[in-house]
Design a protein that fits this description.
Length: 241
């Protein structure tokens, strides 16, 4: 899967993973089902996006010579916050698909974290095309934040991590989960610190690295659930007074 599909799919995996029973792996059927859905939705989104942006993409240097890839250009730009709201819908649907209902104490902070994450990688992505965006009149968070991008990204990071911690607390997550959240924090800190918003190649590299960030968090969720079995075994093995 390409980066956009992964970024659509990963919040689904987080939610499905958190819904797993203690000591158990996530529902593999649900993971496969949502993975297929992400592929289909991404493909449909790119097709519609090509139709909407055909006039803009001709004016953008990065896509003018690559019409096949043109669908990637503004899917991460105009109305970015609204895009974040829809792009992370899987954080609500994954849990509901497994559990049969939505636990808002878990799903809302996870969903909020996903939206903040989208604002982070979307803003980084948008810096690739900011000069062309000015020419064609497309608005983006890159143009909005400009030289204040890094403080904004840092604020989004703090908000994202807060949501992840709350979601983990409300699902009784264990050490591996919080280690993964810590690794996510370090990844984002390094990503923001080293980001060169004036180099398109660096922006793309940082944007693409978010797939690994999402996979790392999913791994932490899985291991955190498996660790719950060890915790329960330790409790039952304690001598009673």
């Amino acid at each position: 899967m390409e980066e956009g599909t992964w970024l659509l799919y990963l919040p689904c995996t987080w939610s499905i993973g958190l819904a797993a029973d203690p000591g158990c792996l996530p529902d593999l059927h649900m993971l496969a089902l949502f993975g297929t859905g992400a592929l289909l939705m991404r493909g449909a989104g790119c097709t519609i996006n090509d139709m909407w942006d055909k006039d803009f993409d001709k004016k953008v240097s990065r896509t003018a010579m690559r019409p096949i890839a043109a669908g990637q250009i503004s899917q991460f730009r105009a109305l970015v916050f609204l895009g974040g709201l829809t792009f992370n819908w899987g954080a609500l649907l994954g849990w509901s698909a497994v559990m049969g209902s939505c636990d808002w104490s878990v799903c809302l902070p996870l969903y909020f974290s996903g939206v903040m994450w989208t604002l982070i990688y979307d803003t980084i992505y948008a810096h690739q095309d900011k000069e062309d965006d000015v020419k064609v009149g497309v608005k983006s968070t890159a143009l909005m934040f400009q030289e204040h991008t890094k403080p904004w990204l840092s604020a989004f990071t703090v908000a994202m991590l807060s949501g992840l911690i709350l979601a983990g607390t409300n699902t009784n997550q264990t050490v591996p989960y919080y280690l993964a959240v810590s690794a996510v924090a370090l990844h984002l800190a390094q990503q923001i610190y080293s980001l060169d918003i004036n180099k398109a190649e660096d922006c793309w590299k940082k944007f693409a690295s978010n797939r690994n960030l999402g996979l790392l968090l999913f791994l932490g969720i899985v291991l955190g659930n498996l660790w719950k079995r060890n915790d329960s075994q330790d409790e039952t093995s304690k001598p009673t007074s």
